[in-house]
Write a structure and sequence with these properties.
Layout: E1 8-9, E2 15-21, E3 25-26, E4 33-34, E5 37-47, E6 55-61, H1 63-72
Length: about 70
């Protein structure tokens, strides 16, 4: 019997919205600082094993990175 804990991803797709980064954020693609400009914010929920709370996976991207991400993703 496998006793490892597993995490289930409800929806593998991120929900994206364009937001203004008032506080400094780091880009998930290039680790570039995003601050005082419009950027793309995405999130998804990941369910944990029984009894564990779900995790929120968040990402920030610049305009150029978001366009490249959308063009290259399936």
């Amino acid at each position: 019997m496998d006793t490892r804990l597993t995490w289930n991803v409800n929806d593998t797709r991120f929900k994206w919205a364009q937001k203004f980064a008032l506080l400094p954020k780091r880009s998930s693609e290039s680790n570039q600082r995003i601050w005082f400009k419009n950027a793309w914010y995405g999130y998804r929920w990941i369910d944990g094993p029984a009894g564990e709370p779900p995790l929120k996976d968040e990402r920030w991207m610049t305009e150029e990175e978001y366009v490249w991400y959308q063009l290259t993703s399936e």
